[in-house]
Amino acid sequence: MKRTCLSILLAALSCFSVFAQQKRPNVIIIYADDLGYGDVSCYGAKKIKTPHIDQLAKNGLRFTDAHATSATCTPSRFSILTGVYAWRKKGTGIAPGNAALLIDTAQITLAKIFKQTGYTTSAIGKWHLGLGGKGGPDWNGEIKSGPQELGFDKSYIIPATLDRVPCVIVDNHRVENLDPKDPITVDYHKKTGDWATGKEHPELLTMKSSNGHNNTIINGIGRIGYMTGGKAAIWDDYTLTEKLTSQAESFIAKNKEQPFFMYFASPNIHVPRTPNKKFAGKSGMGPRGDVILEFDWSVGRIMKTLDSLGLTKNTIIVLSSDNGPVVDDGYQDEAEALLNGHQPAGPLRGGKYSAFDGGTRVPFIVSWPSVIKKGTSTALISQVDLVRSFAVFLNQQLNTEQAYDSFDMSSQLLGKSTANRPYLIEDAAGLGIIEDNWKYIEPNNAAAYDSTTKTELGNSKEAQLYNLSADLQERKNLASQYPDKVKSFAQKLQQIKDE
Ligand code: NG6
Ligand code: CA
């Protein structure tokens, strides 16, 4: 379903009046990694306090039914930046650290929308969308294509995840602090060089694996993938958040006079969880809780920077997460033992990797103090909608082929409407679709339960149908009672896949 020209025109006109009155707002997306619906206090967490995120919510709009497009990272990031579902393109699952760039540089992106309108744009933090052309990046040369070829004027990124090699920062097109005499080699199939692996030398580990994570040891932590070289370029796990946050602060300060767009993708709260000493032991929930505090702190730092520069009122902040929560994601960090009754997915079933709502329904807060009325919004909305919504907001024309899956939800983002998205797709092992508070999960052969992460994955060989208004927990499969609904959902899903 595509939006009509009329609706685009109307929305553009309504936003134009907002613009006419003031300078174009700065826009910051703060994107957490694996932060669950129940992990922050403004979404009901009782065992942990996230004062800065809560303050953002208090002065902004807190969405209760907002979704990442996928229950894992790479596909959600693909969608938030392109407005297209990742499952339409092969090879967009969780990417290895040496993957080639997954987004076509000809594609429209969120960054391009802003850049074309004269914004200065940056990507800071976790990337995990591949880098370089076919064959992957040249870590020792110019790393191209990447964020800068997708509309970001500046990028300062970790290539993949905290647990994937290479554990280095890529500053624009180059690895930061790389000594040319000590080149980097990365391999995801076999050992390269003589650096110890977790498998061979578990005695060298400061954080033990609970599953996988037994390839090259970097800073005492076994990672996924093998690397050697680039010693001077290797990040420090315990100060990485601080470093990335400082970059974000500098970018804001440098661009205080002109509109800017910043995609700040925090590596928190993904594994390995290595809180700075300021937060270690502070949550009482072990490293997982401590890195939630660290994430909240970095949100606070960004808010304080805006405040000190007088930018708070005219800056839109969108805070969300790339997928739902996971407790044990492959390291022995006591996350489970120290949960103390905390429910990372809040009232939802499942979590990261899951087709149940815990997989994709995530915190989503929008704040723009000079314009958006504070409150909560029940609107069903997807992160894939940001591209078209901001295009409308900035009066940019997109044809229907661009940002294909993105709907204009600008009125909902501005708090002027709580109308639901007509339907919403969730991507885990199979696809799910939500419409009018009914949810259908297509039958698939994947496991129903993952014993390593202890996640209810929501997969079944049978069709599943849930009434989310009466059964938020997705416990009662009503498929056999409503065969017509199942049929029409299955048809609709097929039609969307075929589009
Ligand atoms: C899994 C990893 C997990 C995490 C995930 C990606 C193992 C056993 N598990 O394969 O630790 O890295 O991939 O997470 O290796 S994501 O948030 O980037 O999608
Ligand atoms: Ca993630």
Automatic annotation (TrEMBL):
One of its GO terms (molecular function) is hydrolase activity. The keyword Signal applies. InterPro entries: Alkaline_phosphatase_core_sf (IPR017850), GAG_Ulvan_Degrading_Sulfatases (IPR052701), Sulfatase_CS (IPR024607), Sulfatase_N (IPR000917). Keywords: Hydrolase, Signal. Gene3D superfamilies: 3.30.1120.10, Alkaline Phosphatase, subunit A. Residues 25-390 form the Sulfatase N-terminal domain. Transmembrane segments: none annotated. Residues 1-20 form the signal peptide. It holds the Pfam family Sulfatase. Belongs to the sulfatase family. This is Contig82, whole genome shotgun sequence. The lineage of its organism: Bacteria, Pseudomonadati, Bacteroidota, Sphingobacteriia, Sphingobacteriales.
